[in-house]
Amino acid sequence: MGDSIRKGARVTGTDRSKMATDLKNRYYSGESIRALAATTGKSYGFVHRLLTETGVKLRGRGGAARPDEAKAIASH
């Protein structure tokens, strides 16, 4: 996904939907917003906004959720 969209380019339409789904899945798998931003070439704010637009329940600061919290988050 990150290879098909140039750094700094606007992401709209189906590309934005595909990126949102990919980022959502990767976030729920345990990657941080900062890691997602680094691998996509997008800003922290863009990734954060895209995740919240798709209804992702964000983890608190301080790392990955404990196993019982991860199960609850993944079920959303």
Characterise this structure:
This protein has 76 residues and is mainly α. The protein has one domain. The chain contains four helices and no strands. α2 packs across α3.
Summarize the structure.
By secondary structure, the chain is an all-alpha fold.
Secondary-structure blueprint of this entry?
Blueprint: H1 13-28, H2 33-40, H3 44-53, H4 67-74
Helix pairs in contact: 2-3
Number of helical runs? 4
Low-confidence sequence ranges: none
Largest sheet: none
Structural shape: globular
Strand count: 0
Averaged pLDDT:
83
In which range does the helix fraction lie?
55-70%
In what range is the share of β-strand residues? under 5%
Q: CA-to-CA gap between the ends?
A: 24 Å
Total individual domains = 1
Order of helices and strands: HHHH
Structural class: mainly alpha
Rounded to an integer in angstroms, the radius of gyration calculated over CA atoms is 12 Å
